[in-house]
Amino acid sequence: MLPLVLDQVSFTVNGKTIIDRISIEIGTGPRTVILGPNGAGKSVLMRLCHGLLRPTSGSIVWRGENGGRRRQAMVFQRPVMLRRSARANVVYGMKLAGVPPRERELRASDVLDAVGLADVAERPARVLSGGEQQRLALARAWALGPEVLFLDEPTANLDPAATRDVETLVGQIRASGTKIVMTTHNLGQAKRLGDEILFLTQGRLVERTPVERFFTKPASVEADAFIRGELPWS
Hints:
The chain has 8 helices and 9 strands. It has helices at about 40-50, 85-95, 100-115, 130-140, 160-175, 185-195, 210-215, 220-225, and strands at about 5-15, 15-25, 30-35, 55-60, 70-75, 150, 180-185, 195-200, 205-210.
């Protein structure tokens, strides 16, 4: 994966600055977890990186790709399920991505088996449980063979058992060679799944540091207050 480079990126809505002049390079290697208090701009930053939003100013490019997008996917807190079977959801995603028809069914079977949904592959996706839908969303993304996977609060609405399932899958996807970039409100999850922390507050990138150092020796007053629960979580 070539580096994703953000240069002085800002994003403003109705005169309100959501992302404030962030410059950072995200490349192959550590699992990146974005933390910050409510309203810090975490989800907006993820959408900017994925290309769902355009920055008001600054630039976001894949270095060496003349601004072209790399293979990437994103899974949201509440994934959208199409009105079709679980298998068809996965197949349709690959169709949109231009995966050859002969590969779609085989790859769909492989990922549905990997996420533990082979037994419900023909059931309508919208009748699956919340945990099953999130695993299906991960399968749909994984089937694309992404170089980078953006995860926006992927377990926020799940019970502990479903959360463990999703965390296990994230580990498997990462082991397959995919770079993980995620937001979470769960500090324990950040410790379990992260290698480095990007800490945002009021749209500004305050810290970028290894996960252990962030939780033991935060470099900013804002991060220290956040860890101690003195800033509202999102």
